[in-house]
Amino acid sequence: MTVSAPLLIDGLRVLAPSYQGILCDVWGVLHNGVAAFEEAHHALRTFREETGGKVVLITNAPRPAPQVAEMLTSLGVPGEAYDGIVTSGDVTRESLVAQGSKKLLHIGPNRDQPLYWNLEATFTSDDDESAEAISCTGLVDDETETPDDYRDRLQKLADRKVPMICANPDIVVERGDRLIWCAGALARLYEDLGGEVTILGKPHAPIYRAALKMLETLSGNAVAKEDVLAIGDGLPTDIRGAVSQDIDVLFITAGIHASDFGPSDAPEEPLIRRRLVEEGLRARAALPRLWW
């Protein structure tokens, strides 16, 4: 890390010349679940065009990269904004393949079914008694449910010592102007109830290894971590993950922590600094939203 505290800057253009590659979060940075942020995808596209650097999107979405690309297109994020995508779903699939043909209990919405396509394991969504492991991608209905609705069910599974694989470590994400519960909230509850949880997405190392490997493949050469910039809005996932990997980070403050730093479009730097110190984190720079 080159700077130990955040500095509110004019735009990504201030940092761009210092980096060969970007690892950029998706939800909360490029879109809010309803619409794309035009200035954000313009910034990434401009970085690619003006520096020749590569952009890998790194997301805790519990779905394979092709499905995430389709979603981005539908929201208005053009393919010219990035070179590749690595998802928590991708690294979760690798883990599930390694586990073989266990009977897995899926907790999550039907839209996450692509995660399990062509896997050998047997999946169920309602046979808790015979499940040998849990694959959690989220709440079944994240519009109406809360983690507490799952407490009794998860307690019984924890008592049986059924291990959980969490495919999306996010606790909450933006959807329009609301915050929606994610799989990470269920994983946190499961641990509190005594359950065993494996988490593979941000802030954990497996997804960063995959993203850095993709960045090097796209670049056609080795890329040192000091030449990579991570961009994200989540302190416990994006920022902590980048710091743990010794990767510089641009903190987007108007995402899930928008209410913590004063006006969302004019965050107060002392509040950002204080929060990062409290969390034991650091950032190269900060912006309310990603722009060039």
Automatic annotation (TrEMBL):
This entry carries the following GO cellular component terms, namely: cytoplasm
Name the UniProt key words of this record, in alphabetical order. Answer: Hydrolase
* Domain of life per record: Bacteria
Identify a single GO molecular function assigned to this protein. Answer: phosphatase activity
Q: Which residues form a coiled coil?
A: none
Provide the leader sequence positions: none
What name does this protein carry? Answer: TIGR01459 family HAD-type hydrolase
Keyword check for Transmembrane: no
The keyword Hydrolase is annotated on this UniProt entry: yes
